[in-house]
Amino acid sequence: MTTTAASQFTRDDQPAGCMIATAATQCAPTQARQRDLLTTRRTEAEAALVTRLRAGITSGELPAETDTKPRPPSTAPSCAA
């Protein structure tokens, strides 16, 4: 399941990431606190994943050429009026 999710969320012909998490950041201005929390959590999760991937490269679990750069989000978080 994880392999399938990773394949689906990283397709070049689709928006990047989880649709629910991405949609949750598109909110009313009154929900800016929620948007900011979700944005922070997503950034922290991406950083943790990059750290783990780099550790896997260092330990030999992953090939040295493994791409560890996070993909940019398909849309920037915003609160629409």
UniProtKB/TrEMBL annotation:
Keywords for the protein's UniProt record, in alphabetical order: Transcription, Transcription regulation
Presence of the UniProt keyword Cytoplasm in the record: no
InterPro entries cross-referenced by the UniProt entry: Tet_transcr_reg_TetR-rel_C_sf, TetR_C
Domain Tetracyclin repressor-like C-terminal span(s) in chain numbering: 7-69
Segments of this protein annotated with the region Disordered: 51-81
Superkingdom field: Bacteria
Gene3D superfamilies found in the cross-reference section: Tetracycline Repressor, domain 2
Protein name, entry field: Tetracyclin repressor-like C-terminal domain-containing protein
Originating organism: Gluconacetobacter dulcium
Lineage: Bacteria, Pseudomonadati, Pseudomonadota, Alphaproteobacteria, Acetobacterales
